[in-house]
Automatic annotation (TrEMBL), chain A:
Chief location of this protein within or outside the cell: membrane
Organism: Acetobacter musti
Protein name stated in the entry: High-affinity zinc uptake system membrane protein ZnuB
Residues in the signal sequence: none
Gene3D superfamilies given in the database record: ABC transporter involved in vitamin B12 uptake, BtuC
General function of this protein: Involved in the high-affinity zinc uptake transport system.
Family: Belongs to the ABC-3 integral membrane protein family.
Residue spans crossing the bilayer: 6-30, 42-73, 85-104, 116-145, 172-197, 209-234, 240-257
SUPFAM superfamilies: ABC transporter involved in vitamin B12 uptake, BtuC (SSF81345)
UniProt keyword terms in alphabetical order: Cell membrane, Ion transport, Membrane, Transmembrane, Transmembrane helix, Transport, Zinc, Zinc transport
Subcellular location: Cell membrane
Membrane topology: Multi-pass membrane protein
UniProtKB/TrEMBL annotation, chain B:
Gene3D superfamilies reported for this sequence: P-loop containing nucleotide triphosphate hydrolases
Record's keyword terms, sorted: ATP-binding, Ion transport, Nucleotide-binding, Transport, Zinc, Zinc transport
Domain ABC transporter: 7-239
KW Transport (keyword) present: yes
Protein's name according to its UniProt entry: ATP-binding cassette domain-containing protein
GO molecular function: ATP binding
Pfam families: ABC_tran
Cross-referenced InterPro entries: AAA+_ATPase, ABC_transporter-like_ATP-bd, ABC_transporter-like_CS, Metal_Ion_Import_ABC, P-loop_NTPase
Similarity section: Belongs to the ABC transporter superfamily.
Keyword Ion transport listed: yes
Length: 260, 256
């Protein structure tokens, strides 16, 4: 299957996405912020649809909308109860705008399917470069951020007392989540971002590994699921996103078994 | 005793939102003393400790620690917050302590071998080596608390601020942890401020009592403050102080 250019592209693109989604997802699960990640994917959808309508590259729309929305989410306080409602409202509004943008487009069905369910087999050389660039930038940022982020996630009051700015850390992290979400959306589609972001992170958490090992494990799982999904899709001719979703849930369940 | 004061407050007023929690309090805590911090719920114990960490800025007055103005992230202070967030259930106690070791620095959460040895020493100091290997989600509240005490001791701080470290411990454990805190503090020459609701486990451990109520503070040696008139006024209900033949002092309150 690697004889075909589009397959090689797809493998390379999903590797870029998985190495960012794995570690970011591990922190997302640790912080109990998967709902924020979910919302960001919907906002990214609106951004991509808007970009497509304006004739800009949808990837730029995905990234721009998700990173900006992540930053805005981080800046607006940390009262979780109220925040979940606020996130839910913004999410619905974003989806609403996404639908409107699609409605205004000449050929909405094609764009919509690609955005909602991913289009990993249609990755162009230019897109691969952007995906790789975003992945490297995201990983560098996460590398710098990870120590205070881990501390702030586990013991916010103590971290604050030791001089960590909780708001800064949380804002930067949500912007990273936005970037990772936009990347994932390219492979799995907006609706299945969870499979590559939250699935591997949650499975790694279940194994009870120390933080660095857990982050590594989440990365390997994300990569395995993305590549496994591509290979299975090649052999069965079923959609890649379907297989990634199946593998992601299977890994999560198996990780739970190990604990028994 | 000519000792530098560890904490000195001059006319400090602390306000949260539009509520004045403490107004114009002045006090000083001698270095090396063990201070019990008492007061009814909402009296401002947590707020006072957070002010020493500069997480709350006084609206007036100034606070100095060992002669220096208070600053965020002061490494000479060990802190155990009151609210204990239960995230990271699948991580072990050592992971928890490791996350806080120079946790405010940017970079990867990598801990050197020397750092790990420091963590093991801190765990050993509070007899929690076995707890350090277990998952946080599988620990009881009291066990978790002992880990947090170990964490507050990391880096051998000069000033230890403990916000209700004895809450949710059984009576025997309460006394055990109190004595342990006293021994560690003596050994390392630390100044301790420890808030609590139950006075009894700290009798014989603390040498100074700091009471907060209705925006005012009162500080003094134990035998001056742990008396019926002072405590009754503090809590606003009759409080009985019994001196047992064993030399122990027992405090109990009606209607509390
Ligand atoms: N953000 C806030 N805005 C206004 N008032 C606040 C705020 N946070 C706390 N307070 C009030 O400040 C007072 C002091 O609170 P603090 O937490 O210091 O009390 P405490 O003595 O530690 O009580 P407890 O024994 O219950 O732990 C309380 O009356 C509380 O209601
Ligand atoms: Mg309190």
């Amino acid at each position: 299957m690697l004889a075909y250019d589009f397959m090689r592209m797809a493998f390379a693109a999903s590797a870029c996405v998985a190495v960012l989604a794995g570690p970011v997802g591990w922190f997302l699960v640790l912080r109990g912020q998967s709902f924020a990640g979910h919302a960001l994917s919907h906002i990214a959808f609106a951004g991509a649809a808007g970009a497509a309508l304006l004739g800009i590259s949808p990837l730029a729309g995905l990234l721009g909308a998700a990173v900006l929305a992540g930053g805005a989410m981080g800046l607006t306080g940390r009262d979780t109860g109220e925040r979940d409602v606020a996130i839910g409202m913004v999410l619905s509004l974003a989806m609403g705008f996404g639908v409107l943008f699609l409605h205004l487009m000449p050929r909405p069905a094609v764009t919509a399917t690609a955005l909602l369910f991913g289009n990993v087999l249609g990755v162009s050389g230019g897109m691969l470069v952007s995906l790789a660039g975003a992945a490297v930038a995201g990983l560098v940022a996460l590398g710098v951020l990870s120590r205070p982020l881990l501390f702030a996630s586990l013991q916010p009051e103590l971290a604050e007392a030791r001089g960590v700015s909780l708001r800064l850390v949380s804002t930067l992290f949500l912007m990273l989540v936005g970037a990772a979400t936009a990347e994932c959306a390219q492979i799995t589609g907006v609706l299945l971002v969870f499979t590559l972001m939250v699935g591997p992170g949650a499975a790694a958490q279940r194994l009870g590994l120390a933080p660095l090992a857990g982050i590594g494990c989440a990365t390997v799982l994300a990569l395995g699921e993305a590549w496994g999904g591509l290979a299975l899709s090649w052999w069965t001719d079923w959609p890649v996103s379907f297989w990634i979703a199946v593998l992601s849930v299977a890994a999560f369940l198996l990780a739970g078994l190990r604990r028994l | 005793m000519e000792r530098e004061s560890a904490v000195a407050c001059h006319d400090v007023t602390l306000r949260l939102g539009d509520r004045t929690v403490l107004s114009d309090i002045s006090l000083s805590v001698a270095e090396g003393s063990f201070v019990g911090l008492f007061g009814p719920n909402g009296a401002g114990k947590t707020t006072f400790l957070r002010a020493l960490l500069r997480l709350v800025k006084p609206v007036s007055g100034d606070i100095t620690l060992f002669g220096q103005p208070v600053a965020r992230g002061n490494p000479a202070i060990g802190y155990m917050p009151q609210s204990r967030t239960p995230s990271g259930a699948m991580l072990t106690g050592r992971d928890l302590l490791a996350s806080g070791l120079s946790g405010a620095k940017w970079g990867l959460p990598w801990v050197s071998r020397a750092g790990m040895a420091e963590i093991d020493a801190a765990l050993e100091g509070v007899d929690a080596v076995a707890l350090g290997r277990r998952r946080l989600g599988a620990l009881s509240g009291g066990e978790r608390q002992r880990l947090l005490i170990a964490q507050a001791l990391l880096g051998s701080p000069r000033l230890l601020l403990l916000d209700e470290p004895l809450a949710s411990l059984d009576p025997a454990r309460m006394r055990e942890v109190a004595l342990l805190l006293r021994d560690v503090a003596r050994r390392l020459g630390m100044t301790v401020i420890c808030s609590a609701h139950d006075i009894n486990p700290l009798i014989g451990v603390m040498d100074t009592v700091l009471c907060l109520a209705r925006g005012r503070a009162r500080i003094g040696p134990v035998d001056e403050i742990v008396t019926e008139p002072v405590l009754s006024e503090l809590y606003g209900v009759p409080v009985e102080v019994c001196h047992a033949p064993s030399g122990r002092v027992l405090v109990s309150a009606d209607g509390l």
